Amino acid sequence: MDPVPSSAAVEQSERIARAVRKKRLRLFGTITLALALLAFGAWALVRFGSGPAGDPPTGTETHADQGGDHVPFNTPFSYNSNPPTSGPHYRDPANWGIYDYEVHDQIFIHNMEHGGVWFSYRPSAGIGVVQDLEALVRELGGAKIIMSPRSANDADVALAAWNRTLKFPVVGERLTEAEKEAVRAFYRALKNSGPEGRLIPDSMPGIDPKSVQ
Fold first, then answer.
1. How many domains does the chain have?
2. Mind listing the pLDDT tens digit for each residue in 56-97?
3. Cβ(196)–Cβ(115) under 8 Å?
């Protein structure tokens, strides 16, 4: 017959069991907290990234945010910049890329909300200017870039990102090296600056603008 453990032995055994349980709970809590911190860090990296790559070039203007409501196509609205850089826009963005025709502002605003940068030029700009802009799009990899003529521009070349513009006249038939460098700096600093920029992958497709306009 096995001996009956004394009350002191039973109490000691229970103390040991309680200590083991507490240790396990502390370990579980530590692991859970560490995993939560890792998950938050990963989310923050995707959401906010590591910050813009340098400062926007001299001459870049900042505009008040006019929101990002989705509205029916061609809904009238008084935008606070030319080209517009925020505000009510069409529900779908355009495919990224170079367009040889004018695309409605309310489509491209959605692209900028997704972190895009819009290269636009007056239709009267020389073919050399257009070729230089196209070459810059290719040089920069084309990621989250839209390019098009825009007759409403008040400058020969207008770059736009969310709440930002850079505009300049072109003297001559080609962009100068300083102007090309300004385009590069604007893009590198402001790509993904839109409120959904870090959430939208570079390769996410949009619509063919001609399907709606």
1. 2
2. 999 999 999 999 999 999 999 999 999 999 999 999 999 999
3. yes
Q: Decide: 143 and 185 in contact? Cβ < 8 Å.
A: no
pLDDT tens column, 130-174 = 999 999 999 999 999 999 999 999 999 999 999 999 999 999 999
Q: Would 53 be classed as within a structural domain?
A: no
Range of the domain at 43: 1-48
CA separation for the pair 141, 58 (Å, rounded): 23
Residue 114: closest CA among 150, 133, 81, 86? 86
Bridge pairing between strands 97-98 and 145-149: parallel
Q: What DSSP string describes 92-126? A: SPBPSEE-SS---HHHHHHHHHTT-EEEEE-TTS-
Nearest Cα residue to 60 out of 140, 158, 147, 166: 166
Claim to verify: residue 28 and residue 117 sit in the same structural domain: no
